[in-house]
Amino acid sequence: MKAALKTAEGTFSIEEVEEPSLPADDWVKARIRAAGICGTDLRHWRKAEEELRCCIMGHEMAGEVVEVGPAVTRVKPGDRVLIESVLGCGHCEWCRARQYNRCPDLYPTRRASVSRAYAEFVVGPQQKFYVLPDHVGFDDAALLDTFAVCLHAQHLSGLTINDKVAIIGAGPIGLGQLMLAKASGADVLIIDPVAHSRELARELGADIALGPDDDSEAAIAKFTGGRGADVVFECAGGPSMPDTLPLATRLVRRGGKLVLVGGFDEGATVIGLEWQRIQMSEITLIPSASFAFHDLYPEQAQVLELVAKGKLKTRELITHRFPLDEINQAFDTAQAKQETGAIFICLLM
Q1: Which of 84, 173, 220, 279 gives 20 to 30 Å between its CA and that of 109?
Q2: In angstroms, rounded to a whole number, what is the distance separating the alpha carbons of residues 196 and 46?
């Protein structure tokens, strides 16, 4: 099959590789039809990482079932499916409690099978495949990993109706966080340096959208009657964290919650925070990682239902589509979002 393999320089090379086979009776094979590029992928772009050389990357995807094992009852060949890539080992305490996003072997497990979106075919256990309604496209579904990350963060936050919410970052994660907060009855202020991202945030319901020249601390004080935000979502992550995380702690009110949605790079990250003020204000810092189940419900299935019912929008976020053969151009376009107007980019196969 055709696949995009990471090179030593951190770009991609289109190669022919062995097609995956079903390793168990309850596994499914699907042909990938759409795959997304997210902020996590971009943090590896043009970065030399020997451990990822020749790997197939990508974790946001939708496709069509082409083969099922004899024990599969959930889907059948020909089904259009959303494919969840958050796959734990299945044996540890966290996986047994359906908290598989916390599995100690999460990344090695998922990268060995279902977290390989930048290829023609992928295999995974049947519970990771969700049948798409006819009116939800493959490219729409490729956004649902992102939205599930947002939903998990909102569940952890305890956000409720009429909360005053601040969101830092208006990429796909921040915009998904915005839509969920508004659907839950919150008032939302969002911050992003990119003008077209702020404009889309306003179209999606943001009460206030601020840029780099705005005084965000004065704006949040006015927005909240001087208290600060009940909940702040840090959705930028990566290299911006040394600036955005301290800002987030200044935007949240006393007794409020700060949810870390944007990702950190591997290894130690030194960021100075006003810990005395955080402690004396009893501000709660909540790390949020991927998604799994909320009570009885898989969060991936929940966002699929929200999109199917029109409660979350997708079309407005999808700005570019590229064939897999042009994956390097797609990543360059995503990286240069200030110039290209990129929000969410789909690879179509």
Answers
A1: 173
A2: 25
How many other CB atoms sit within 10 Å of the CB of residue 39? Answer: 19
Cα distance between residue 282 and residue 156, in whole Å: 17
- C-alpha 20/C-alpha 176 separation (Å) is 32
CATH (residue range 2-143+314-348):
3.90.180.10
> Residue with structure tokens 């790997």?
55
Cα separation, 320 vs 34, in Å, equals: 12
Q: What CA–CA distance (Å, rounded) separates 120 from 29?
A: 11
Predicted confidence (pLDDT) per residue in 179-221, tens digit: 999 999 999 999 999 999 999 999 999 999 999 999 999 999 9
Judging by DSSP bridges, how do beta strands 297-298 and 318-323 pair with one another?
A: unpaired
Helix (H, G, I), strand (E, B) or coil at 67: strand
pLDDT for the residue numbered 40? 87
Topology of the domain covering 150-287: Rossmann fold (3.40.50)
Question: What are 6-28's pLDDT values in tens digits?
Answer: 999 999 999 999 999 999 999 99
Helix (H) or strand (E) holding 182: helix 172-183
pLDDT in tens, 44-53: 899 888 888 9
- Return the pLDDT at 229: 98
Domain limits, the chain? 2-143+314-348, 150-287
Q: Which of 261, 198, 348 is nearest to 39 (CA)?
A: 261
d(CA 35, CA 63): 9
Radius of gyration of the chain (CA): 20
Residues of the chain with pLDDT > 70, as a percent, come to: 100
Q: The tokens 């094992």 sit on which residue?
A: 69
Helices (H), 226-309: 241-251, 275-280, 299-308
